[in-house]
Amino acid sequence: MLLRRIKREALKLVDGIKLVDFGFALPYTWVLVEGERKRALGVAMTLPEEVQRYTNSIGEPSVEKFIEHVDSLNVIERTLGLAAINAVSQYYVDLSNADNVDVLELLPQDAGKVALIGNMPPLAKELRERGYELYIFERNPKLWDRETLSDVLEYHLLPEMNVVIASASCLVNGTVDMLIDRARNVKLFVLTGPTGQLLPDFLSGTRVTHLASMKVVDIEKALFGLKLGSFRGFDEGNMKYVVEVK
Fold first, then answer.
1. What secondary structure does DSSP assign to 146-183, as a single string?
2. In CATH, which of 3.40.718.10, 3.40.50.11590, 2.60.40.10, 3.90.1640.10 is domain 103-217+238-244?
3. What pLDDT, on the 0 to 100 scale, is given for residue 52?
4. Does the domain at residues 2-92 carry the CATH identifier 3.90.550.50?
5. Cβ neighbours for 149, distance < 8 A, ≥ 6 positions apart
């Protein structure tokens, strides 16, 4: 299970990093950490449709406790755990070789069949306008439209795809292993969105080729947006980046 591997690697990096604050909230769950050098903010998409009845089994919160529960069966613990891993990742990440480009710039014109995991309308619109053969998969029926496929079809159709652009919320809902396994013929596999703030090394050796995410450069502004439940307010404190997984 990929999350267990990521958990093991992240726990090796938590010495000297303490929990400052956190929130299980909409649209993103967030964890703020601090070490000797700086503070770092990690987020993970909150999936309200997946939230179950919950009794706290974490106990006294800490960076380590959150990360230890990232492979929990409960989505609240998985989300907090991934946000904590992302915070630790952002504390250490080196973006000197990252590209400040849009994820679409990674796709060649002859990309073939492109799978979009998670209905992201602006991205879908641009992919269609550029003429790509696009297949959109979505789990949440509230986000379906007439051109959206149920995510149950991912298992059958992903082996035919040449490119996968997946919302990194697949790490939260537990489908990432299946996506990587079934996308056996891809040339390009991109995890995209704020939830993909992971250290690229955590994904080495998988089929994931790129992370397209956000670096929080103004923590106070981003936190203010998060506490107000604002996508736009959070985005204003960030810098988009694309980094290759080697």
1. TTEEEGGGHHHHGGG-SEEEEETTHHHHT-HHHHHHH-
2. 3.40.50.11590
3. 83
4. no
5. 135, 136, 137, 138, 157
The helix (H) or strand (E) run that includes residue 216 is: strand 210-216
- In sequence order, the 6+-apart residues with CB closer than 8 A to the CB of 165 are 103, 114, 115, 116, 117, 123, 190, 192
- The verdict on pTM exceeding 0.85 is yes
Q: Where are the domains of the chain?
A: 2-92, 103-217+238-244
Residue ranges in the chain assigned as alpha helix (H): 2-11, 63-68, 75-92, 121-129, 154-157, 170-173, 176-182, 219-227, 231-235
pLDDT digits (tens, 9 = 90+) for 129-154: 999 999 999 998 888 888 899 999 99
pLDDT higher than 80, residue 99 = no
Q: Look at the alpha carbons of 13, 41, 75, 244 in this order and tell me if their dihedral is positive or negative.
A: negative
Give the mean model confidence (pLDDT) for residues 165-180.
97
